[in-house]
Design goal:
Elements (H helix, E strand, L loop, with lengths): L5 H19 L2 E3 L8 E3 L10 E2 L23 E4 L13 E5 L4 E3 L6 E5 L5 E2 L15 E2 L6 E3 L5 E12 L12 E16 L2 E3 L12 E11 L6 E3 L4 E11 L5 E11 L16 E2 L6 E8 L1
Parallel strand pairs: 1-2, 3-4
Antiparallel strand pairs: 4-5, 5-6, 7-19, 8-18, 9-17, 10-17, 11-16, 11-18, 11-19, 12-13, 12-14, 12-17, 14-15
């Protein structure tokens, strides 16, 4: 009779159990041959993270560590709602805890552009004012009483782009063979909402308060035959603001214009017909909001 070596059998059994345990430590879902500690395979379904309602990027709750201590870095959940704290806000999406705060696992980006409508806008000259007056202005279609509602709380870059061109110059070449005149005025940008109040003052010319100077030249050249006339040459200008906006709040803005100089030198005093100035011809005026950072 052949005798078994009990010591050999014992160690073989231990080795087999250890091997079996190592195999069982790898979990496969959708596969019988997992290639990692967890291997999930499917061509039609995804992984659903725990869905929670976070209130702030610096608050662990309602997520808890079952061991009764702080969350470990790498804890990952799907947040279902947006907060409106004014700082440390959260938004729907996947978040991971980095040891001290929830960090979004998605890109926070937003851009919205508002554009002048109705084609080229014509202006009149408010010659009774020594300076452009935001209280006697002409609103620009498509950019009047518009509302921007930010998706995120944080700093937004707000860029206002305008262009203005003069009308046809009145022919005063009896004095000079070449005549040159300018129409001048200003654009006004108003923006109001939580924490923001950009409202041009009638007597204080201030870029930071929404004033934007504009002008354009018209010419009449009688040296040439027939005479050369040049107008509708646009003057482009822009304003840029950096404002902290609150997610979900409404911010109302209006862009307007007041031309107050040039009435004596343009056809019909710049108030009608070819003498009127032009706003947004070919390239419309715009207001753009771009999210920069929390």
């Amino acid at each position: 009779m052949k005798l078994f070596n009990l010591k050999y059998v014992f160690f073989s059994l231990i080795a087999g159990l250890a091997f079996h345990a190592s195999i069982q430590a790898q979990v496969g879902i959708g596969t019988v041959e997992p290639e990692g500690i967890l291997d999930v395979e499917s061509s039609t379904q995804g992984i659903v993270f725990p869905r929670v309602v976070l209130t702030s990027t610096v608050v662990e709750a309602p997520v808890v560590n079952p061991n009764g201590v702080s969350l470990v870095a790498g804890t990952t959940v799907y947040n279902t709602t947006a907060s409106n704290n004014g700082s440390n806000d959260v938004y729907p999406g996947i978040y991971s805890w980095n040891g001290s705060r929830w960090t979004p696992q998605f890109i926070l980006e937003e851009y919205e552009k508002f554009e002048q409508t109705g084609g080229c806008m014509r202006t009149t000259v408010r010659e009774s004012y020594s300076n452009p007056n935001p209280l006697d202005d002409d609103n620009i279609p498509g950019l009047t009483a518009q509302v921007f509602t930010p998706t995120y709380t944080g700093t937004y870059r707000i860029e206002v782009k305008v262009n203005f061109a003069s009308g046809a110059i009145d022919d005063f070449t009896s004095q000079d063979l070449i005549s040159l005149a300018t129409m001048e005025g200003a654009f006004f940008f108003k923006l109001q909402g939580t924490g923001v109040d950009i409202n041009p003052d009638p007597v204080l010319y201030d870029y930071s308060e929404g004033w934007l100077y504009c002008h354009s030249y018209g010419t009449h050249n009688s040296v040439e035959s027939p005479a050369l006339e040049d107008n509708r040459v646009p003057h482009f200008a822009s304003l840029v603001f950096y404002e902290d906006l609150a997610a979900g709040d409404n911010y109302t803005f209006t862009l307007s214009n007041c031309i107050n100089t040039g009435d004596a030198y343009f056809v019909n005093n710049g108030d009608s017909g070819t003498g009127q100035g032009y706003i947004g011809c070919d390239i419309p005026c715009t207001v753009e909001f771009t999210f920069l950072k929390e």
